[in-house]
Design brief:
By secondary structure, the chain is mostly beta strands. It is built from one helix and 26 strands.
């Protein structure tokens, strides 16, 4: 995790060594071990500043991994290094170290004497992973041409790591990947950018949204619903008297702000759509904070076997729903719609 210290060097007599950074320490503040001479003429390797040691003897240095070192018991006592007493630091001997910061490292004696020739290597734990998931919902085909999703995260060491992204049509989709702690720990947040391209016929400029969902215990997730970019109006028609088999409604709409025309579309409600007491349809378009935003609504069709009197009205936005009922037009067989 992060930069791992590894190298070959000399641990000089009565000097201290920083195994986390692989340098000889000039003071007590950044040292893990001290090759200390004793009054008797013997020497010992002493842990410093909360570091702990265990002598492993002559074992296979190259094969030692984090799991092997993590299973050991560490001590705060010095390791005897002879020459007039017991010597556990002969050539080829390995010492496991839990450094002052709690990291694990291995150190091997390569030459023995007043100065120790050593090699060392930090042994970080294997990376852990959390799941990231971004879900993009669907939108009307006439309005949205595609979504582009990009994801990345900044690890504690300041580096940026891209994740899997995706390109989707109006139906939306799912992006899944993993977040790693291999660069000093898990990030606090995930960076998600979602670009929305509208259909050329709408004349609308694309939008780009940025999100930073929190990385929790299991990972990070984001649900992006198109209604974050789309305003919807539900149309509800009360079918009384009941519609006949050949009846239908043709709904057309055009969105505009002031004198500027925008998204438009149409939908025919027929057959199963109008068999019942209520018919419904939802129209959608980008939200607009302007007080002049409106939707021009036109409804034609056949009702009770006769041509419907055309309904035409500009509806001020925002509006969540419009309800309609049928009324006889004069004394004849024709009907007209009225909003209520």
């Amino acid at each position: 995790m992060g930069t791992v210290s590894t190298g070959v060097g000399t641990l000089r007599a009565n000097h201290r060594f920083d195994l986390e950074n692989g340098i000889e320490a000039t003071g007590m503040g950044r040292a893990d071990v001290w090759w200390r001479p004793l009054p008797s003429g013997s020497r010992e390797l002493v842990p410093l500043l909360g570091a702990r040691l265990t002598a492993m003897g002559k074992v296979a240095y190259e094969a030692l991994r984090y799991q092997d070192l993590a299973a050991l018991t560490y001590h705060g006592d010095g390791i005897p290094g002879g020459p007039w007493t017991e010597n556990k630091l002969t050539v080829g001997s390995v010492v496991a170290v839990r450094t002052r910061s709690g990291r694990l490292a291995k150190m091997q004696v390569q030459t023995y004497g007043p100065n120790l020739g050593i090699r060392w290597q930090g042994c970080p734990p294997p990376p852990q992973y959390k799941v990231m998931k971004v879900v993009v919902g669907s939108a009307p085909v006439w309005l949205v041409s595609r979504y582009v999703v990009e994801c990345a995260y900044e690890s504690p060491d300041g580096s940026i790591h891209p994740c899997r992204g995706g390109k989707f049509g109006a139906d939306g989709g799912v992006v899944e990947d993993t977040i790693s702690d291999a660069w000093g720990g898990f990030p606090a947040t995930l960076r998600v950018t979602i670009a929305v391209d509208f259909q050329p016929d709408t004349g609308l400029q694309g939008v780009v949204k940025h999100f930073e969902p929190v990385v929790g215990l299991t990972g990070a997730s984001l649900l992006y619903e198109p209604n974050q970019e789309i305003q919807k109006v539900k149309l509800v028609f009360g079918l009384a008297p009941p519609a006949r088999a050949q009846d239908y409604l043709l709904v057309r709409w055009a969105y505009r702000t002031g004198s500027s025309a925008g998204a438009s579309g149409q939908k025919t409600l027929s057959g199963p759509d109008v068999q019942g007491s209520v018919a419904q349809h939802e129209i959608a378009f980008p939200p607009d904070g302007s007080t002049t935003a409106k939707v021009d609504l036109t409804i034609d069709g056949i009702y009770q076997g006769e041509e419907l009197v055309q309904f035409k009205q500009a509806v001020s936005l925002p509006a969540s729903a419009l309800a309609f009922r049928f009324r006889k037009q004069g004394s004849g067989p024709r009907y007209r719609l009225e909003a209520f």
